[in-house]
Amino acid sequence: MSKRYKQMLDGMRAREKARPRKGRRGKWILYILKCADSSLYTGITKDLERRFKSHSEGRGARYTRTRRPLEVVHQETCRSRTEALTRECAVKALSKAKKLALINHRQTLENKGVP
Fold it and tell me: What is the pTM of this model?
């Protein structure tokens, strides 16, 4: 993680601690998309359905405009934007093999009935 990005996240965490919790709206979602070329795209949003639709229509991130996402293969709920950005950075740093292992582990848990 770059020094500048780390400083930004540290500042966001500090501001988050200073604010009261009851004013916050909604949950943030970290998601991983599988694209047509079998690559994986990681992002965050508050409305996954809307975001997936924008990716599919070519209005999402530049990365997905030419690769067109096929499906959402992983999602996690985060309590705040800061937490979602931190988790996104951690997931993006993983190799593709480790991302696939994360996806497979999550699917195994869901098949066993673990939320």
Answer: 0.79
